[in-house]
From TrEMBL:
Binding site residues for GTP: E43, S44, G45, K46, S47, T48
Keyword check for Chloroplast: no
GO cellular component labels: cytoplasm; heterotrimeric G-protein complex
Molecular functions per Gene Ontology: G protein-coupled receptor binding; G-protein beta/gamma-subunit complex binding; GTP binding; GTPase activity; metal ion binding
Binding-site positions, Mg(2+): S47
InterPro entries, A to Z: Gprotein_alpha_su (IPR001019), GproteinA_insert (IPR011025), P-loop_NTPase (IPR027417)
Superkingdom of the organism of origin: Eukaryota
Annotated GO biological process: adenylate cyclase-modulating G protein-coupled receptor signaling pathway
Keyword annotations of the record: GTP-binding, Lipoprotein, Magnesium, Metal-binding, Myristate, Nucleotide-binding, Palmitate, Transducer
Cited PROSITE patterns: G_ALPHA
Organism: Schistosoma japonicum
PANTHER family per record: G PROTEIN ALPHA I SUBUNIT, GTP-BINDING PROTEIN ALPHA SUBUNIT
Name of this chain's protein: Guanine nucleotide-binding protein G(I) subunit alpha
Assembly with partners or alone: G proteins are composed of 3 units; alpha, beta and gamma. The alpha chain contains the guanine nucleotide binding site.
Length: 118
């Protein structure tokens, strides 16, 4: 019954210290991680914000991700152009460059455009 630790107690004490140091280190690492909860209605831009943050703070996209997103970007671009042309029709806004109207019939044939009032 002395003040000294037995060999087993000493090993347990050192193991406990290593575990505590590891927990402290892990806690410090986790404290540096920013967590973000994005809330919003559908199509409000939550995914867009997440993708932009990835581009800014990580090493951008892999080639596979680029190939995956390419059709999505193309589709969004075409849909936005169609929405603008339809809005121009409803608001009776004319094309600034009239030669652009030439491509409208081909868009109509493809079913991309329902109507356009010039």
């Amino acid at each position: 019954m002395g003040c000294l630790l037995s060999v087993d107690e000493k090993k347990a004490f050192e193991r406990s210290k290593r575990i505590e140091a590891s927990l402290k280190s892990d806690g410090e690492k986790l404290a540096k991680i920013a967590k973000l909860l994005l809330l919003g209605a559908g199509e409000s831009g939550k995914s867009t914000i997440l993708k932009q943050l990835k581009i800014i703070h990580q090493s951008s996209y892999t080639k596979e991700e680029c190939l995956l997103y390419k059709p999505v970007v193309y589709s969004n671009t075409v849909q936005s152009m169609i929405a603008i042309i339809r809005a121009m029709s409803h608001l009776y806004i004319k094309f600034e460059n009239e030669c652009r109207i030439v491509s409208l019939p081909s868009c109509q044939k493809l079913g991309l455009l329902v109507e356009y009032c010039a």
